Automatic annotation (TrEMBL):
GO terms for molecular function: DNA binding; DNA-binding transcription factor activity. InterPro entries: GntR_C (IPR011711), TF_FadR/GntR_C (IPR008920), Tscrpt_reg_HTH_GntR (IPR000524), WH-like_DNA-bd_sf (IPR036388), WH_DNA-bd_sf (IPR036390). Keywords: DNA-binding, Transcription, Transcription regulation. Residues 7-74 form the HTH gntR-type domain. This is FCD domain-containing protein. Gene3D superfamilies: GntR ligand-binding domain-like, Winged helix-like DNA-binding domain superfamily/Winged helix DNA-binding domain.
């Protein structure tokens, strides 16, 4: 089932409300006002009211006559009860196109007419997908009417070479003298990972695009703390090359849960100031990811 774009936005806002309840530890029965949600989430009253009605349907809040909305459970429990987000029509089509490209069913160069015929999509929806792929750097304009997918690591040799570069660069970035982590950024990044892990463990899952973005943010944020622009550039390059492949990999729920836990372990070690442990954990994470991708680094024995 797919949602329209307004429905998807409403669902996301409802998730933000339950996130807020969990983060602030609100008690069951607490009065949840539109005004406080508008201020905390920086949105107007109308969408907040709609989100509360959606949460009422989900059994998270109840509307008491003349007294507004009240939590039917504790904030942490509300956070665990978040509804699974439904992908929009565009998101579902985008994921299908990327899967087909990664599998080789879709060539590196395409045209709008080819995509419209292959996916039997409306022109407006397809144009939205093409625009999003272009915005994310996954689709480039070629000559004439040709659209070209961005270069990607795909064969075993290139995947192995990519992981060998990352194994050299990313753990080392954490051990540089100039490595300066931002505690607030770390906390937000950890919360995002924890929320995604909770969703997977509750069977709700997540949109592949959101997971790809979270994975990229993790690796680029750590590289950014190094203060070394050359390391950041290398990590960004590898992230861009992996993006198409990551869309397919993030459909494997057990693997997603594992890398979310591994990321959290790295973030916890960095937060605790144990950078040697963080570097070791990051290296282990990359080695396991390489084996999962079917291209273990040559200096790493397979288990």
């Amino acid at each position: 089932m797919v949602a329209t774009r307004p429905e998807a936005r409403l669902g996301e806002l409802a998730r933000r409300v339950t996130d807020l309840a969990a983060q602030r530890g609100w008690a069951a029965g607490r009065h949840v006002t539109e005004a406080e949600l508008c201020e905390a989430l920086q949105v107007s009253r109308t969408p907040v009211r709609s989100a509360l009605r959606l949460l009422e349907e989900e059994g998270v809040v109840e509307a008491r006559p003349g007294r507004g909305f009240h939590l039917r459970m504790s904030g942490p429990e509300a956070g665990r009860r978040r509804p699974r987000p439904q992908p929009t029509v565009e998101e579902a089509l985008l994921a299908r196109i990327l899967r087909d490209r990664v599998s080789g069913e879709l060539p590196a160069e395409v045209t709008r007419s080819l995509l419209l015929r292959r996916y039997a999509s409306g022109r407006a929806v397809m144009e939205g997908v093409i625009a999003r792929l272009a915005d994310e750097g996954l689709l480039l304009r070629g000559g004439g009417r040709v659209l070209r997918f961005a270069a990607s690591v795909g064969d075993e040799a290139s995947v192995r070479a990519s992981y060998e570069v990352r194994l050299v660069v990313e753990p080392a970035a954490l051990l540089l003298p100039g490595f300066r982590p931002d505690p607030e950024v770390l906390a937000v990044l950890r919360d995002r990972h924890r929320a995604s892990l909770d969703d997977f463990e509750a069977g709700r899952g997540a949109a592949p695009g959101a997971l790809v973005a979270l994975d990229a943010d993790f690796h680029l944020t750590l590289a950014g703390f190094s203060g070394n622009p050359f390391m950041v550039a290398l990590v960004r390059q590898q992230t861009d090359l992996r993006r198409l492949m990551e869309y397919a990999a993030n459909e494997d729920s057990p693997r997603v849960r594992l890398w979310l836990k591994e990321h959290i372990a790295v973030l916890d070690a960095v937060t605790a100031g144990d950078l040697a442990l963080a570097a070791q954990a990051l290296r282990g994470h990359l080695e396991r990811a390489a084996r999962f991708a079917g291209a273990p680094a040559r200096d790493t024995p397979a288990e």
